[in-house]
Amino acid sequence: MTKPELTILSPLEGTVASLESVPDPIFATGTVGAGVAVVPDPGVEVVEITAPMDGTLTRVQPHFFVLDNGEKQLLVQLGVDTARLEGQGFDTHWPESTDVHQGMPIVTYTPRELGRMGFDPIVIIVMMKTSTHDLKKLAYPGEPINRGGKLFSC
User: What span, in angstroms and rounded, lies between the C-alpha atoms of 52 and 75?
Assistant: First the structure.
């Protein structure tokens, strides 16, 4: 019996971008895993980031979180080099070890504020320890996507 595909939803509204276009070599080269990025819509001050899949929050920092569904781990990174902000511009809603469902709000962040401070506010969604061959793209670079839109499956 084959396992059902896991579909990853967009945690925000914006424009789909390729992982290769992310201005961080760790993500752009696929070192962490395969996935996509979403550029938040311009002009939006506050964005609520939701869970792209069901799982347990195994790691929560203001600028990223990791979800584990027992088989796969998904990393959602908010912005590039945003660890340097030490939480400024981010508000986490749940502690580590919380079970969450797809679509639940996890973090609120301020992409325009990040941009004004010189940080790229792109949101990176990566299935850790996975290659691009294991993913089926459901949204493509340059396409608009709504929160909850299908990004990829694996």
Answer: 10
Q: How many CB atoms lie within 10 A of CB 57?
A: 20
- pLDDT higher than threshold 90 for residue 91: yes
Is 67 inside a domain boundary?
A: yes
3-state class of 10 per DSSP? coil
Residue 128 lies in a domain: yes
Residue 3 has pLDDT above 70, yes or no: no
| pLDDT tens sequence across 27-36 | 999 999 999 9
Written as six digits, the tokens of 123 are 């949101």
CA distance 64 to 82: 9
Residue 86 domain-assigned (yes or no)? yes
Tell me, yes or no, whether 125 lies in a domain: yes
CA 78 to chain CA centroid, nearest Å:
7
pLDDT for residue 42: 86
Q: What is the CATH number of the domain that holds 25?
A: 2.70.70.10
Q: Give the strand order in the sheet containing 105-109.
A: 47-50, 105-109, 90-92
Q: In what order do the strands lie in the sheet with 33-40?
A: 99-100, 55-61, 64-68, 73-78, 123-128, 33-40, 14-18, 144-145
The per-residue pLDDT for 1 is 53
